[in-house]
Design brief:
This protein has helices at residues 62-68, 125-129, 176-181, 292-300; strands spanning 36-39, 42-44, 52-54, 57-61, 72-76, 81-86, 89-94, 99-102, 105-108, 114-116, 119-123, 134-138, 143-147, 162-163, 184-186, 189-193, 199-203, 210-211, 217-221, 228-233, 248-253, 274-281, 284-291. It has 302 residues and is mostly beta strands.
Length: 302
Amino acid sequence: MKKSIKRTLPLIVAAALVSTAIPPVASQAHAAAEIRVAINAGTVTFPDQKPIMNNNRVLIPTRFVAESLGGNVSYVSSTKTVTIKQGSKTIVLKAGNSNVTVDGRTVKLDVPARIVNKRVMVPLRFVSEAMGANVDWQQQNNLVAITTGSNIPTPTQPPFDSSSNFQFDPEFSSIAKTLFSSMTEANGEVTFTLPKGATANYYPGNGGLIKLTSGKKYTYKVGKGNGSVIISYVDPTKVKPDAPKQKETYVIFFDASRYIVKNGTNNYSTDKAIVVSNVVVNNRIVDKIGTIDEVKKLAQNL
């Protein structure tokens, strides 16, 4: 399975998954350190059963993701069968079976769907093979990045707390000064140079993905309908097993309305870009948000 985000990103919504009277399947499944799921850069929230890691594969709750991708989900407990109506497409899967039927065509998954805590869980491949979206598992950041070529509803809640008081994570700020000290926002555009060793993807507002090249300068327009860029840097000396955070990551929203705060609202003007960082507080990832000017000033003092 790939270990970096590929294809597109802005992100997402949740709903209660199929409930059954069937007891959870005994397994080696365990909850990894807060596996996050994003669709087109919007965040999917999970009110109960979270994504899990099982035998080196990420399993995700079917309904939460299917509904976020525009599907209507129904479940028959007697046969453990999930049916998803996605536009003109009909998808049928059964717990315990690795075969999924998509409009009469059989798609074989790498592992079968299964029931965990009364939720039907499917491997990541289900999203791409059956639902037609692109998916990548960013292991270093515990992130499942799902992307489509269409507009998906923006999220109602992010999975972590957020604060407008931007700050850098003291343990993960290796490229911060290089990246932000020279970053500018002027005349409706943000310009920056991607630091050497960093990786980044640009996600246009209308879908798609463009992989950026370290050492190159980029300029993007700011305002309603524009996209976002995710910039990451891995310092091997700071990677710690089971830690909630494994890399330095920043998301720059050129359309600030794409970032939805915890209560489902957004107070950020679309006239200015915002930078979202994250820090670890009490072993929990907390988002920190600031404007380019605020972040630039803090970076210059690192």
